[in-house]
Amino acid sequence: MVSPARSAFHEGALHAAGIPALVLAAGYMGFGALAAGNGLTFAGTVLSTLFIWALPGQLILVEMHTLGAPFFAVLLSVMLSAVRFLPMTVVMMPLLREAPRPKPHYYAAAHLVSMTGWAWAMARFPAIPPERRLGYFFGFALTLMASATSATALGFLAGDLLPPLAKLAFVFMSPIYFLLMLAGSTRDALGRAAILFGAVVGPVAHFVTPQWSVMVAGVLGGTLGYATHRAWRRRTRSR
Amino acid sequence: MSEYVLLVVACGAATYLWRGLGIAVSSRLAADSELFAWVGCVAFAMLAGLVSRIVLIPSGALEHTALWQRLAATAVSLIVYFAVTKKNLLAGVLSSAAVMYLLLLAAG
User: Fold this and answer.
1) A195 to B62: CB separation less than 8 angstroms, yes or no
2) Given pLDDT bands bounded at 50, 70 and 90, which one contains residue B94?
3) A98 exposed, middle or buried (CB, 10 Å; 0-12, 13-18, 19+)?
4) Which residues on chain B are in Cβ contact (under 8 Å) with A32?
5) CB B52 within 8 A of CB A202
6) Is the pTM above the cut of 0.90?
7) Which residues of A touch B73 (CB under 8 A)?
């Protein structure tokens, strides 16, 4: 609902402060606890939420760094994991541009694009007047970021306050958050094929090359999933 | 600045690269091309590989949990997420933590 008395920014912030921020906070709390459990620094962990603002990339960073992967390998893997932002912003831009704003506004908004914010914006934008969309997005995404950053810090610190067994349970929330996000986000067979092959290649590659296993799972598993799906589609279509 | 913070900043820049590029080329690029379909597969597979590796062969704190405990907690979270609550992420995530805690307590 859009009330003209309230600014678009305020409106977006209100919509984020609820289930979206709460779910994200659970994921980031687990991430904070996981990073603390892997012996990383508090500053580096909290900064990663602000600078990277993509939980998959942050998890890759933490896991690879813990396994002693070289700087360049970590950077390359995180970079590859973020390629999805390119099509995401490409799809979102035309909706924002219906009411033109100075370019820097768009480049600032780009940093705030995340899975949650993007999916929400894509669903709500059509019902929001074009001139209110950018403000709404800033309000929504910045509220998410504030919640996630506090949750990262809280998860990192709370991990040490909890009894050891409760901490382990807390840390386990992080991979499960991803598992459910992954399992719940794919509506098509192509995505499911990629997930299936990646899930098999990942652990196998870990035995061969732990430091590069994330990359191998992505490129090899992803390509196998893509090729399998396309071959299967060609066969069923030619029939 | 520690080496890790430097790595965090570099990874942040590498992530922003794609977001900024998306803005720059948005008027010239079709988001439904085959290249993006493949890139999406790579991103999905990467994350799936990472998650299955963490559940099967964890590093860090989770090394102190047993494989059967992780598998049981994972199964419960999937059941809660898909069957019980019709895709409630919060319920799925919290149920896995609760099951893991109870299993760790029971195992002593």
Assistant:
1) no
2) very high
3) exposed
4) none
5) yes
6) no
7) 172, 176
